[in-house]
Structure formats: structure tokens, C-alpha cells
Amino acid sequence: MTADDLRETSAALAGRALELPELAGAGTVAAYVSVGSEPGTLALLDALRARGVRVLLPVLLPDNDLDWGAYEGEGSVAPVRHGGRMALLEPAGERLGPDAVTTADAVLLPGLAVDERGMRLGRGGGSYDRVLARLERAGAHPALVVLLYDSEVVGHVPEEPHDRPVHAVVTPSGVRRFGKAP
């Protein structure tokens, strides 16, 4: 994709996501800053903040678990390289602890694909599997939403016993729902 394509896709995704009732009524949203070829999230993060939503961003810990920090605009994130991986943009401010995600009304999850059942294929590090398990242990039931390109909604992805379906996937062309969101 060209830089213009990425900008247009990011704007379309942000527009679609902002129409979701789960995000419209959210006081706190746990999200992420896209990297590499992932659909862009900064436009959405800034739009959520402009609405007065508290946006939490992940901080990758050495054991692949996630801590969280508040997003206060583009200047509040800094590139952090973890080993030989690509640099991630993480919040530069105060760390809120791994349980901060349990306060979220909605969680935006990265993924490589989502299938027709709502099962998400991640990158294999297990970070978001831990987040989902933490939410379950805490009795928290935020809306789980994945942002993808249209071609990444597929017929079937492999799943493990611990995997949980998401409630919705947002693509540039629309929203697809799975099951019932909280």
C-alpha cells in the first residue's frame, strides 16, 4: 500500500470504529498503536481522546505480558525496541499496571485475521491471550474489537483451547459482529 492508501484506510477504519455503540459510550478504551503494515490506529486514538475517552496503550513486558499507560496524544508515545523485533510505540508516561485493562469498556485488539466465528489469529506472542484471561479472571466484560483489512476476514483460523472470540471486526468497508457484545 502507498502512504496515501494507508492514510485513507486509517481514516475509513477510524470512521467505522467511531460509529460503534461500544466505542460511542466508552469512558475507557484499551487500544494499541499500529506498527508495520497493520491498519493505522492513530487517527482513531486521537478521535477517541477528542471525545473525552481515556485511552490506554500497552507496554510490552519482558515476559510478553502487557502493562498499560495513558495515551495523551502523539507526543506521549515513544519507540521502544524489544530484542530484535521492530520498534513499538509505547506510552512514555506512568505505568498503570497489567490490571489497568480491566477498567476498559472496550478493548481494541491487534490481529492477523479473524474468521467467521469471531476467532482472532494473533502474532503468536500470547500477550493478548493474557489480557483476555486477565479480563475473564476479573469478571470484566469489555467489548472486544479487532481492526483489520477486508482481506483479513477469512473462513477459518486455527484456535487453541484458551482462545476466545471477539465481538466485532472493523474493516475499511464495514463492521461485522460475532455473538453478542456486552
Report Rg. 15 Å
Mean pLDDT: 90
Strand order of the largest sheet: 3-2-1-6-9-11-12
SS strand fraction:
25-35%
Helix content: 10-25%
> Strand-and-helix sequence, N→C?
HHEHEEEEEEEHEEEE
Q: How many E strands?
A: 12
Number of helices: 4
Low-confidence stretches: none
Tell me about the largest β-sheet.
Answer: 7 strands, mixed
Give the end-to-end Cα distance, rounded to a whole number of Å. Answer: 35 Å
Pairing-aware structural class of the strands and helices? alpha/beta
Rough shape? globular
Q: What can you tell me about this protein's structure?
A:
There is one protein chain. This protein is an alpha/beta fold. The chain has a seven-stranded mixed β-sheet with strand order 3-2-1-6-9-11-12. The chain has a three-stranded mixed β-sheet with strand order 8-7-10, with no helix packed on it. β1, α3 and β2 form a beta-alpha-beta unit. α1 runs parallel beside α3. It starts with a helix and ends in a 5-residue tail after the last strand. 32% of the residues are buried.
